[in-house]
User: Which sequence fits this backbone?
């Protein structure tokens, strides 16, 4: 398949959507709650997802779309071309900070990531990658990752995983936080993946992410040599919520071997 035209089209959709999101700060945003009062969605999340889906269906009627807000297809298997879309990753940041959120898009063929995009809307930074062709921040090629031991690593981890939780033992997480050089938490899984890919943090881990959170960023991270798996070391299914860890290969091994103990 010739991915060039799809790549160019995806980038143009992302830029147009980013423009619309920036403009929304002048027109007003309606916020509502989804599964809980801290699980927020806005009219803009929904409008942006509908915008992408309309355009994708017009131009690529045989492609399927899995989108967070539910306007896409019900995707139960990954054959053919599937677009994984998170119209706004980091909705809480979008609402509270008006920055630090991203459009995340991954385009997969038969379950293999071919094109990946994460657009930091307010910074105007587009991270992109095509499988086998390297990863870019705008026009600048990202360098291959360096190996880091835990003691010299900055780890992207949310504070809630250091408290008792139902997914993983928290004591080894406390040990990790104590032994690493520092921790960071940005509130957007897609942006955290790009921070790993750009070498700003050395790992990112989370107990529960959805396919649209990671599909785009994984294509980018893979191109600089990062390893991304579930916390038991398996490939992601990209069909439901899963645990997630991404890092340079040595650190990824060390995190799985010494610090991550999943509860049964
Ligand atoms: C969320 C963000 C957040 C992560 C959550 C995601 P949303 O996505 O990526 O950083 O911790 O698990 O659900 O809801 O802002 O699109
Ligand atoms: Ca998300
Ligand atoms: Ca979202």
Assistant:
């Amino acid at each position: 398949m010739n991915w060039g035209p799809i790549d160019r089209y995806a980038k143009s959709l992302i830029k147009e959507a980013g423009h619309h999101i920036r403009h929304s700060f002048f027109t007003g945003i309606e916020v509502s709650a989804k599964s809980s009062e801290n699980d927020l969605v806005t009219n803009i999340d929904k409008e942006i997802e509908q915008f992408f889906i309309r355009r994708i269906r017009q131009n690529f009627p045989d492609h399927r779309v899995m989108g967070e807000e539910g306007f896409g297809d019900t995707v139960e298997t990954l054959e053919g071309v599937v677009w994984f879309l998170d119209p706004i990753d980091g909705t809480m940041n979008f609402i509270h900070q008006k920055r630090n959120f991203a459009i995340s898009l991954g385009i997969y063929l038969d379950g293999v990531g071919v094109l990946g995009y994460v657009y930091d809307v307010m910074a105007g930074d587009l991270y992109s990658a095509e499988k086998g062709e390297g990863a870019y921040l705008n026009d600048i090629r990202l360098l291959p990752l360096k190996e880091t031991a835990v003691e010299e690593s900055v780890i992207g981890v949310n504070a809630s995983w250091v408290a008792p939780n139902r997914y993983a033992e928290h004591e080894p997480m406390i040990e990790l936080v104590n032994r690493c050089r520092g921790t960071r938490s940005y509130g957007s899984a897609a942006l955290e993946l790009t921070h790993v890919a750009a070498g700003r943090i050395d790992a990112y881990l989370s107990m529960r992410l959805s396919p649209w959170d990671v599909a785009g960023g994984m294509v980018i991270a893979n191109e600089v040599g990062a390893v991304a798996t579930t916390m038991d070391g398996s490939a992601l299914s990209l069909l439901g919520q899963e645990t997630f860890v991404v890092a340079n290969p040595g650190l990824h091994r060390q995190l799985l071997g010494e610090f991550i103990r999943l509860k049964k």
User: Anything to note?
Assistant: The radius of gyration is 18 Å. The first helix runs from residue 4 to 27. Helices lie at 4-27, 43-59, 91-96, 170-179, 189-197, 211-223, 249-259.
